[in-house]
Amino acid sequence: MKNQLFSYMYIYSISLVGTSLFLLLHIPLPWILGPLVAIFVLKQIHQQQFLMHPMLRNISFTITGIQIGATFTATTIDKVVPYFLPFTLLTCVIIGVCIASGYAIAKWTDIHLPTSLLGSIPGGLSVMVAMSDSTNANTGLVAIFHTIRLMAVLFIVPLIASQFFLQEGSQETASQIDVIHNSHPAWWTVGFYVIFFIIAYIFRFKVPAAFVIIPMFFVAASQLLEFPLISLHESIFHFAQMTIGMHLGLSILISDLKKAGKYTFIYLGLSCFLIFFSVILGILFAHYSTLDVATAMLSLAPGGLIEMALTANEVNGDPSIVGSLQLIRMLFIILILPIGLKPFIKTY
């Protein structure tokens, strides 16, 4: 027990050093990327295996879902509805390009076609791994290819957004927004956050990214219904982001990248191409709509809902719209894409 406690104190201390360095260098998403890099480097220096309890990770996901949900306002739905059809169309274009790229890579290399397709589409890692398990795809390579994409998105997209698409004016943080909407919430409403976590835990195998989606949905609903929930301190959000960064750092293994070999650079190149293609579509999306460029680009970026919504908050975009549109794409990929891909993969 003491050794485990010391291990947690040690990795959190190292993560805090990484966060401080990223804050000092003004690197985007310092509370996620700082710990990610720090823990990844630590693993290469020490041979000791560092572990994180799943409950700690899930609680952090829940807190982040609460943070994103708190950015929703009564006008969020009205803002999102007009963009549903054009966003879905652009999502189909991006997925179509990914499928074509996956097909081309399979033709030019010796990668199995189902493996190449599932590794090219920017869907959730767990969903694509589950699909690869149900087909004759190489599950290990699919997981590695998606890890490569995630790392590329985490470092490149926030940098592009902060350097080129930073919006003028001040954007309130999620915690500040929460305080504004809930001036005098009752302290006992913190119990609702516990209930949200329990519900997410119950449906963790039925709802994708349940620990993020379910709290985000309920907190957003409370915002829209003007039901006051107690505000969490900003330091709690930072702790959650740091824990998620540590989790990502612990998840990346050099051995996995070595297994992918030369394919690592192929899929890294594909990820970079997909990012810049999404940026171009985001600029067009913003031009033909009332969205600012940062919000439009981050909504289409092939990254995770959490990271893109938090990045939107940092660059003065609209995290509620980014979170909503990213959720729509996630549901599209999870519910519709497997149905369309499975017959094609099975016939291969």
UniProtKB/TrEMBL annotation:
Keyword Membrane carried by entry: yes
A Pfam family that the UniProt record links to this protein: AbrB
Coiled coil stretches, renumbered: none
UniProt keyword terms in alphabetical order: Membrane, Transmembrane, Transmembrane helix
GO CC terms, sorted: membrane
Highest rank taxon of the organism: Bacteria
GO aspect biological process, one term: regulation of gene expression
Residues passing through the membrane, by range: 20-42, 83-105, 143-166, 186-203, 210-230, 236-254, 266-288, 327-345
PANTHER family, sorted: REGULATOR ABRB-RELATED (PTHR38457:SF1)
Name by which UniProt lists this protein: AbrB family transcriptional regulator
Native organism: Gracilibacillus halophilus YIM-C55.5
Phylogenetic classification of the source organism: Bacteria, Bacillati, Bacillota, Bacilli, Bacillales
